[in-house]
Amino acid sequence: MHSWTFRLNALFTFTVTVLAFLSALNALSVAFYKPVPVATIENVKLNRLPGSGPKRPNAEARVMFDMSADLRSLFTWNTKLVFLYVTAEYSTELNRLNQVVIWDYVIENVKDAQLTVGKSQTLLLPRHHNEYPLVDQGRGIRSSADNVTLYLNWCTMPVVGFISRQREGKTEFKFPETWEKLAAASK
Length: 187
Fold this sequence. Notes:
CATH class of the largest domain: Mainly Beta
Signal peptide: 1-20
Helix content: 10-25%
CATH architecture of the largest domain: Sandwich
Largest sheet: 4 strands, antiparallel
Low-confidence stretches: 183-187
Mean pLDDT: 78
Structural class: alpha+beta
Distance between the termini: 86 Å
Subcellular location: Endoplasmic reticulum membrane
Number of domains: 2
Radius of gyration: 23 Å
GO biological process, one term: signal peptide processing
Shape: elongated
Oligomer: single chain
Order of helices and strands: HEEEEEEHEEH
Strand content: 35-45%
Family: Belongs to the SPCS3 family.
InterPro entries: SPC3
């Protein structure tokens, strides 16, 4: 007959094949599911960071914002976590497209997927200003003719399958050309 190693190999191969088939079915079961998340970013305010002034080589700023999001529809039986982040996008003479992540948060379960950041905070989240400074290469952000646009982005990490990315909650604002105007706007 067959040796014990041959039988162990056959059992292992069968187990891995069944697990791969079930994983593929799990990924396909939500492939055509279209979630409908709702997100808004509003009340954007600008503050000057300490130490950022005319003698610094790069422009830095703190962006204060209010955000609300209902991302419960992103959670299915195949969702492991949702990585939520806010990006600031703008164009300057040096770079046609600048994208800077200014805030992020990891949502691990559906009960935390409905959140409000800012005035009426529903979760104990980091402060509603950006966690990471908005640093521009040079001083182009202040003299840019275009607006700075904030987007709420998220990546849905599945248990099995491909990571999906989406964005929502667009809001625009313009940087003042001088730091004096920026300091006056924050009061």
